[in-house]
Design goal:
This protein has helices spanning 10-20, 56-61, 63-81, 87-97, 112-116, 142-152, 175-180, 206-217, 232-243, 270-281; strands at 24-28, 101-106, 121-123, 126-133, 139-141, 193-197, 221-225, 248-251, 264-266. The chain is of the alpha/beta class. It has one domain: Rossmann fold (3-Layer(aba) Sandwich), CATH 3.40.50. Strand 2 (101-106), helix 5 and strand 3 form a beta-alpha-beta unit. Helix 1 (10-20) crosses helix 10 and helix 4 (87-97) runs parallel beside helix 10.
Length: 285
């Protein structure tokens, strides 16, 4: 296993990996979006930051839990909606355009890879900017949901203090504010609305997982960026790659669950390394 402490630079080592194993599949996590102002779920050692996000079963069964979710989401969403792609997103898009990446599977739900120019993206855990009705299947944009929340709850305001922000569009609020929110229902059937993302305790749709494995099978290498792989949802692709002899490179601050499976592990900030990788590859690819 190679680490960033070796004689060759992290960027050079990763550039060599991409050239030797092209085309490569990228798997990305929350560490890709922290530089865009979206907090991640875990510390450098892999331990969770704060409380566990709401679970699917509780969201579906408990109206009070749904009010709490939407109260926090309502004030936190503007920060996520206003986030911009950073160096990591831009570098991965550039690597795709040069034919070094076959596809990109992201565990993030912020849509920043697409906004940076990546075209072959699979949103493993869904997208925050879409809302679905759990009863009739109607779909609306998160911006429209925000307008309805604002109309029904004029006393709420966006979060101004970054210390109140939590991962994705979550925000820290007092119980009184959470309990007082009026949650809009589906205008078509009056049913329960939910962000089109995979909550904790909810399974990734099977067809989506199958598409992800198909993309892995079509690749000669796997590059994991900004993920500790603590959750099996992402780790399973490393297990499959190792089983099938597909080389794995890991770029993440801190340890990952797949460290023993990788041929290349870089403990470094992903944006800086990937930016340099694009520069190293300029005269070579």
């Amino acid at each position: 296993m190679v680490s960033s402490a070796c004689e060759a630079s992290a960027a050079q080592a990763l550039a060599d990996f991409l050239l030797e194993n092209r085309p490569v599949l990228a798997l990305t996590g929350a560490g890709c979006s922290t530089a865009s102002g979206i907090p991640d779920y875990r510390n450098r050692d892999g331990s969770r930051k704060g409380a566990e996000p709401i679970r699917y079963q509780r969201y579906v069964r408990d109206p009070a839990a749904r009010r709490r979710y939407w109260a926090r989401s309502f004030v936190g969403w503007p920060r996520v909606a206003g986030a911009r792609p950073n160096a990591t997103h831009r570098a991965l898009a550039a690597l795709e355009q040069r034919g070094l990446l076959t596809h990109l599977i992201t565990q993030n739900v912020d849509g920043l890879h697409q906004r940076a120019g990546s075209r072959r993206v699979l949103d493993l855990h869904g997208r925050l900017d879409v809302v679905d009705c759990l009863d009739c299947g109607a779909r609306l944009s998160r911006d429209l949901m925000q307008e309805r929340l604002r109309s029904d709850n004029p006393r709420y305001a966006p979060v101004d203090d970054p210390r109140q922000l939590a991962p994705d569009d979550d925000a820290m609020l007092g119980e009184a504010l959470e309990a007082g929110l009026q949650v809009p229902a589906c205008t078509r059937c009056g049913g329960v609305l939910k962000p089109s993302v995979v909550f904790f305790g909810e399974n990734v749709p099977k067809p989506r997982v199958e598409r992800a494995f198909e993309r892995l099978d079509a690749s000669r290498g796997l590059l994991v960026v900004g993920s500790s792989l603590t959750v099996f949802s992402g780790y399973r692709f490393c297990v499959r790659a190792a089983r099938d002899g597909i080389p794995i490179a890991l770029l993440n601050l801190g340890p990952t669950r797949a460290d023993p499976l990788a041929v290349l592990k870089l403990d470094a900030e992903c944006g800086a390394v990937l930016h340099d990788v694009v520069g190293v590859l300029n005269p070579r690819d």
